[in-house]
Specification:
Blueprint lengths: L1 H6 L4 E3 L23 H5 L8 E9 L16 E10 L4 H15 L7 E6 L3 H11 L7 E3 L1 H4 E2 L4 E12 L20 E14 L5 E14 H8 L9 H14 L7 H22 L8 H19 L7 H12 L5 H4 L1 H36 L3 E2 L1 H11 L3 H10 L3 E2 L1 H18 L23 E2 L6 E10 L4 E2 L1 E3 L3 E6 L1 E2 L13 E5 L2 E11 L3 E10 L1 E3 L3 E6 L1 H25 L5 E6 L4 E6 L6 H16 L4 E7 H6 L13 E7 L3 E4 L14 E10 L2 E8 L1 H21 L6 H31 L7 E3 L2 E7 L5 H15 L2 E9 L2 E8 L1 H5 L4 H9 L5 E4 L3 E6 L5 H15 L2
Parallel strand pairs: 1-2, 4-5, 10-11, 12-17, 31-32
Antiparallel strand pairs: 2-3, 3-9, 4-7, 6-7, 7-8, 8-9, 13-14, 13-16, 13-22, 15-21, 16-20, 18-19, 18-22, 19-20, 23-24, 24-29, 25-26, 26-27, 28-29, 30-31, 32-33, 33-35, 34-35
Helix pairs in contact: 3-4, 7-8, 7-10, 8-9, 8-10, 8-12, 9-12, 10-12, 13-15, 16-17, 20-21, 23-24
Length: about 850
């Protein structure tokens, strides 16, 4: 209803953007309808129309700790919005707000209460004089409630609309009205009038282009229309809530403690499902950590409810069923969503058991020391390292009569947050690193004409150095050139930018990289190597043909590779990143275990078979929906325009792709995978070569084999056989060497049995011999122990200036108190070292050969002290 209403008012309906912010480092996740539209508000990009309306999926995790505890809080919601980029302003926005709520939705006008910023007389007049709301029903609030700003940049007052849900939702206190903390007066609509620019010091100037940014939570509006307690009672969300109750064999509103878990799981599985559908994976940082936390909180509350086994993937199915009409990507990615959820649930089940074990150890330590309170640092370690929530730690400890230092926990949490804040990148209003390119007129654009040609003439529109826009670049200067048309492909979709030259009457600008910027601009980054180039010149642009040809081969090969991976490993394979250069290709994809040698060989053969088949490579431009219906593969996090390029390679592969490709797969010539590895949880990476790169690779392998054969004094064909003979020879020599070392050790020791002492009825042999390593000492120790019968043997040796000590004690000697480990520990200090070991055998090393005789003498005293 909302989208159709605003379409009738001349708005362009745009699909929801991904939850992953595009070119915006200030946000981890899209948290409002306005967030993905920032470039249109700032003028960095020209909007497709000056009036736009959306229903945007959003996630906010600021109050994640309260989710479940109240029915008000949630992390996932859908934000309805209508936006004006320098077109209509307050009058139309307020009128349409009123018209939609009262005439289209049919809410009672007498139950609607607007609020305005206390200094915004214009908005007050519109509500009062034009809409006809009595002055006493219009509430004026200060900056905290009714003024939207985010540091420096565009800002302005806002007007909110509250709905009176009736006394049954109220607190019953006298004077309960708009602004009360109870649930009676619910804010359902917010019109932000972006009319000022804040210089960062709260000095405000009027914006030349005034904008409208409105927001209304779909779930909130539904709870009002359906007259239900909260968003968890709205029909679509209730279906999910009921499914949680079904899994847990319980009823909602029967037990408050269980209600907390039911609400939390209901909310978190919505967020997790949508995040995974946009390509976010569970990790330990950034948005991946937000996802991991949501999944693990839901999994733990499943345990609290007594849900048996893994359940999140089954629950996600209900989310998809309820939302796939509005968000078809959920249905497209459902197998992948289920797999990620199941894998993360498995990991958490191992983690929580490990956490319980650690907590058990901490309890034992507290019990032993008589402590009744777990330290904040230990509680935080459980939370941060093992994903163990504070409330679970608290609950388990309370059952056993222990407390927890919550202040200390919060201090550790704050310390971590402070570190995170200090590590944040400095960004401009757009959340991107501020650069000279921000100053270029938004109307400047570049047309790419390089799909079928590598050269063209075009007018220079803008020139910049690293720090400023300039009129000319001269010999030796580095900078960026912008033109009206270019055959240079800009780095995009994993394909690196073209290199080449821009020339004019002897002037040469060497293009080292080509970059894509906001607003359809293409920057040619490089250096003037001769002459001068100035704004307005008509120059010749020439792409490096060899580099482009190599890039095309590698890019086309990635398409064949992705299809081959899907055929070999399964449909869950999704591209997670790629790099295509003239020399090589890199392809990152979703898969949950290392590929086997057989799988790698199969994929390689599939790709080479399609290369040998010389498949024609065809490109069509079509509507995005038509492209998807045709079976073309699309990427998770790619932002596609309405019309897209579809690249087909025979009947084998069909993908949405804006990159450059060969005309026929036969041009690729050959394909070779050189490595397969893991780069993150659930993400694998393949590196490969094509064409001349494959032949160069094999030439290097042959040269390496020839070098090895030369060292082995044999032919390349006989290398393996020769190595086998050498290993057998080495084994024989090692055995002979050990025998010689053992004999040498015995010879060095001589007849030492006459050095045996008897201490308290236990025999002790403590002797020195030199030039024997630790292995030799151990062998001798065993031999002497046999000769001794029962007793203790202590041996010391000096070899290459280093001391080795070894002690061994028989079972009978141990029963009388002898302990080899403690003996070694007591005498090792005399040789400048340390060590220890078991009661029966111990060893140590040292750096002081001068102390060996003292250590041998001390051994008798130590043994005497040990014996009972």
């Amino acid at each position: 209803m909302f989208l159709e209403f605003f379409e009738s008012k001349g708005h362009l309906k745009m699909n929801s953007f991904s939850l992953v912010p595009h070119n915006d480092k200030s946000l981890l996740l899209i948290n409002s309808g306005m967030a993905p539209l920032k470039p249109y508000f700032t003028g960095a990009e020209i909007p497709p129309r000056k009036r736009v309306t959306t229903c945007q999926k959003c996630i906010r995790t600021g109050d994640i700790e309260n989710v479940g505890k109240t029915a008000r809080h949630g992390t996932f919601f859908e934000m309805l919005g209508n936006f004006s980029f320098g077109d209509y302003f307050k009058d139309e926005a307020i009128h349409w707000t009123w018209e939609f709520l009262t005439e289209v939705v049919g809410l009672d006008p007498d139950r609607l209460y607007p609020s305005v910023y206390l200094e915004d007389d214009e908005a007050f007049e519109i509500w009062n004089k034009k809409i006809g709301i009595p002055a006493e029903r219009i509430f004026k609030f200060g900056k905290e409630d009714n003024f939207w700003e985010h540091g420096a940049g565009p800002c302005g007052p806002c007007s909110e609309v509250y709905y009176d849900r009736g006394e049954k939702y109220g607190c019953g206190k006298p004077g309960c009205t708009v602004g009360c903390d109870c649930d009676r007066y619910m804010e359902i609509w917010n019109d932000v009038f972006t009319q000022f620019d804040n210089d960062g010091n709260n000095n405000y100037t009027e914006l030349a282009q005034k904008n409208i940014d409105t927001g209304m939570g779909l779930e909130r509006l539904a709870s009002v229309v359906q007259d239900v307690d909260s968003i968890f009672d709205v029909d679509t969300v209730r279906a999910l809530r009921d499914k949680v109750c079904e899994f847990a064999h319980c009823e909602y509103h029967a037990d408050e403690a269980k209600d907390v878990s039911i609400r939390l799981i209901t909310d978190h599985i919505r967020s997790a499902t949508f995040m995974i559908s946009d390509g976010i994976m569970p990790t330990n940082e950034g948005r991946g950590y937000v996802l991991r936390r949501l999944i693990r909180r839901a999994a733990r509350h499943g345990r609290l409810l007594g849900i048996e086994g893994k359940f999140l993937a089954k629950l996600s199915e209900t989310v998809i069923e309820g939302s796939r009409d509005g968000y078809p990507e959920l249905e497209e990615k459902k197998d992948f969503i289920f797999k990620v959820l199941t894998q993360e649930e498995d990991k958490f089940n191992k983690t929580i058991d490990q956490g319980l074990s650690i907590l058990g150890q901490l309890e034992e330590e507290m019990k032993a020391s008589g402590e009744k309170t777990l330290s904040g640092a230990d509680a935080f370690r459980l939370y941060d390292t093992y994903g163990f929530p504070l409330d679970l730690t608290k609950e388990i400890l309370e059952e056993k009569g222990y407390g927890i230092d919550e202040e200390g926990f919060r201090a550790c949490m704050e310390e971590q947050r402070t570190k995170a804040r200090e590590a944040r990148e400095v960004t401009n209003y757009m959340g991107a690193d501020a650069t000279v390119y921000d100053e270029i007129d938004a109307a400047v654009t570049t047309e790419f004409v390089g799909y079928d040609r590598l050269s063209c003439q075009s007018k220079v529109t803008v020139l910049t150095t690293d720090t400023e826009i300039v009129e000319a670049l001269t010999d030796g200067q580095s900078g960026t050139v912008f033109v009206e048309q270019t055959p240079f492909y800009a780095t995009m979709g994993g394909q690196v930018g073209d290199k080449g030259t821009i020339t004019l009457d002897g002037a040469v600008f060497q293009v080292e990289d080509t970059i894509k910027l906001l607003g359809g601009k293409v920057g040619h980054v490089g250096r003037m190597t001769r002459g001068m180039l100035k704004t307005g010149d008509v120059a010749t642009l020439q792409v490096d043909a060899a580099g482009r040809a190599g890039t095309c081969k590698n890019h086309s090969a990635t398409h064949l590779l992705q299809k081959a991976l899907k055929l070999t490993l399964g449909s869950h394979v999704e591209q997670k990143g790629s790099l295509v250069t003239p020399d090589r290709l890199r392809f990152d994809f979703a898969h949950f275990q290392p590929m086997t040698a057989e799988e790698i060989a199969k994929v390689e053969k599939l790709v080479n078979d399609e290369i040998q088949a010389s498949l024609p490579v065809a490109t069509q431009v079509m509507n995005i929906e038509e492209a998807k219906k045709s079976g073309a593969m699309a990427l998770f996090d790619e932002k596609y325009s309405e019309n897209v390029r579809v690249v087909s390679m025979g009947d084998f592969s069909k993908e949405l792709c804006g990159g450059t490709h060969v005309s026929n797969t036969g041009v690729i010539t050959a394909f070779k995978i050189v490595s397969e590895s893991g780069i993150a949880a659930g993400v694998r990476r393949i590196e490969a070569l094509t064409g001349d790169g494959v032949f160069a690779y094999y030439r290097e392998q042959e040269a390496e084999l020839a070098r090895a054969a030369k060292l082995l004094k044999t032919t390349p064909a006989s290398v393996s056989e020769k190595i086998g003979h050498l290993f057998a020879e080495i084994k024989t020599l090692q055995a002979e060497n050990e025998a010689l070392k053992s004999k040498a050790a015995r010879d060095a020791l001589g007849d030492v049995m006459d050095q045996v002492q008897e201490i308290k009825g236990v025999k002790l042999l403590a002797a020195r011999l030199d030039g024997v390593d630790m292995n030799g000492l151990r062998d001798l120790g065993d031999q002497l122990k046999e000769k001794l019968g029962d007793g203790v043997v202590v041996l010391a040796s000096v070899s290459d200036g280093k001391v080795s000590l070894m002690a061994t004690a028989t079972d009978a000697a141990q029963k009388k108190g002898a302990h080899a480990g403690n003996l070694i520990k007591a005498i090792a200090g005399l040789v400048g070292g340390g060590g220890g070991g078991r009661p029966g055998m111990a060893q140590a090393g040292g750096k002081n050969p001068a102390g060996v005789d003292a250590a041998i003498a001390e051994a008798a005293k130590v043994v005497e002290g040990q014996l009972q």
